[in-house]
Each structure stands twice: as C-alpha cells, then as structure tokens.
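Hey L., structure's done. Input below.
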Amino acid sequence: MKAKVFVSLKSGVLDPQGKAIQHSVELLGYSGISDVRQGKYFEISLANDVDKQIAQDSVDKIAREVLSNPIIEDYRVEIES
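Output:
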C-alpha cells in the first residue's frame, strides 16, 4: 500500500519560489501562464496488511504534524491499495 501526500502553500501566502519559476518559464518563451505555485510531494510505503482507514488516519496525522506547516500550508492525502 502507498500513501501520497501533496503539500501546497495556502492561497493567501506569498510564494517567491513559484514567482521565480514563473519568471523562468516566461523567459524560456512559454506564455499564457498566469501563476505558478510550488509545493511538496511525499510517497510513504505502508505494509499491505494495514487497514485502509487506519492508514488514512495515520498518514493524515503525519502530514499535519510533520510534513506540513498548518499555518501556511494545506495538504491532501491519497491512499493507494
């Protein structure tokens, strides 16, 4: 079983790295991009015999307490069998 955790800055938080990426993309000639927001992605391998709901709850707690800063970041957890 695998858990995927996506962490991104909340919409009101400034993202200087995203702005730098957007600027670089524009310099390469790509147009029509109005905004770039950067984030983090984690894959967590879980034992196959773990109950899916327990895995969801555990990884959600890990994402909230370790992988993200809940003041400035949102996160999303996906569990794959």
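The chain has one domain: 2-80. The longest helix spans residues 52-67.

-- N.
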